[in-house]
């Protein structure tokens, strides 16, 4: 059965830029080789400007993914780093597979 949380996730996945961001985070070493910090910290929000969107649009997309629980933010000083939430993604995929 679909939950309200699944609706939030589906809305988050509806935008192609957010799907691309999730895909890039799956292999951060490949997609963000120029990041100065170790990728195991996550990917700095500024790195996502590669998708051709403004900083405010990137921030909105990242916030939407975080609100859906698909990524987790971690603030380090003035920067915010993002990682995929693999447990939440796997649980969502399992629920959807059962529909």
From TrEMBL:
CDD domains named in the record: HTH_ARSR (cd00090)
Keyword Flavoprotein: no
HTH arsR-type domain location: 8-98
Manganese listed as a keyword: no
Record InterPro entries: ArsR-like_HTH, HTH_ArsR_DNA-bd_dom, HTH_MetalResp_TranReg, WH-like_DNA-bd_sf, WH_DNA-bd_sf
SUPFAM superfamilies named in the record: Winged helix' DNA-binding domain
Keywords recorded for this protein, A-Z: DNA-binding, Transcription, Transcription regulation
Gene Ontology terms, MF aspect: DNA binding; DNA-binding transcription factor activity
PANTHER family: TRANSCRIPTIONAL REGULATOR, ARSR FAMILY (PTHR33154), TRANSCRIPTIONAL REPRESSOR SDPR (PTHR33154:SF33)
Protein name: Helix-turn-helix transcriptional regulator
């Amino acid at each position: 059965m679909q939950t309200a949380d699944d609706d939030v996730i589906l809305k988050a996945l509806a935008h192609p830029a957010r799907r691309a961001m999730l895909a890039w985070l799956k292999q951060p070493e490949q997609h963000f080789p120029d990041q100065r910090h170790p990728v195991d910290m996550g990917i700095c929000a500024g790195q996502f400007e590669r998708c051709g969107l403004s900083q405010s649009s990137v921030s909105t997309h990242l916030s939407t993914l975080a609100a859906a629980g698909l990524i987790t933010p971690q603030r380090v000083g003035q920067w915010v780093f993002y990682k995929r939430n693999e447990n939440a993604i796997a649980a969502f995929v399992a629920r959807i597979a059962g529909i």
